[in-house]
Structures are given as C-alpha cells and as structure tokens.
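Data deposition worksheet. Section B asks for the primary sequence of the deposited chain exactly as it was used as input, without tags or linkers unless they were present during the calculation. Section C holds the resulting structure in token form. Section D is free text for depositor observations; keep each observation to a single sentence. Incomplete worksheets are returned to the depositor.
Section A, Depositor: J.P.
Section B:
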Amino acid sequence: MYSAMGDLLHLVSEGELIQLTDDDGFGVVDPLLVDAALERADQKIDSYLGSLTDQLPLDPVPAIITQVSAKLGLFELYLRRQAELPESWVIERKSLLQYLSDLSSGKTKLLGIAESQQQAPAAAMAVKAPEDSYPNLSDFGW
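Section C:
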C-alpha cells in the first residue's frame, strides 16, 4: 500500500478515525476497514498512474503519493459513513484528483520514480479513472 493508518493519523485524530471505522462499538479503530479504504485509494491512484508507468504499484513510493493515498483513503472512510465533509476537504479532494489527472496527462512530473520506469503519456494507453462506487456523491459536492 502507498500509505498506512499512521499516515491517516497525521490528518485526523484517533477519535475521529474510531468514529469512521468502529462499526461494532468497541472503541477502537478497525484496521481492516482502514486497509480497505486505503486499497480503494491506491487503486484510484494506480488508474491514473497507469498512463505514466507500467511498473505498478510504485516501489519505492514517492512521498507525494503517500500523502495522496492517505487523503483519498480518508475520503473513502468519510464516504463510507456518508458523513459530510468540510468544504475545505471537498476542495482538497478535487485538487488531488486534478493532480493525478495532470500526472496522467504529462502536465506534471512525478519525482521519485526512475526515468526508465516512466513512459511518454502520448505513447501510453488511455486509462479511464475509476467511477466512484458510492451512489450519492453529489450530496458531498463531488
């Protein structure tokens, strides 16, 4: 995975992470739900990076991708709870997806991966970003 639970704890408190994952009322973070959310985030990232490199998942993982993964994973957990996000987080998600789109199209370079791993966007097959699997995204302004 590109990020881990510790990366999420740099973004939100443990209490908030408990609220987003504790379906059984044990008062602890459910690591399986965190991992599933991070996996969905990483799949979204890879769908964009597929036009940049065919060596996925990235290894080593550039720090910026760890940050994007953690934030997108957190969004997945919020969506799972269908909790309303602050407007600043909605803007951040749009910004992250635009960044990934810019990487995919070659407008932005991904530092931290070897030049030999990268392929020219024009030569790469077009990769369609995955559809979100949540039906009510419009409720979140996404």
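Section D:
Residues 31-49 form the longest helix (19 residues).
Confidence is low (pLDDT under 50) at residues 121-142.
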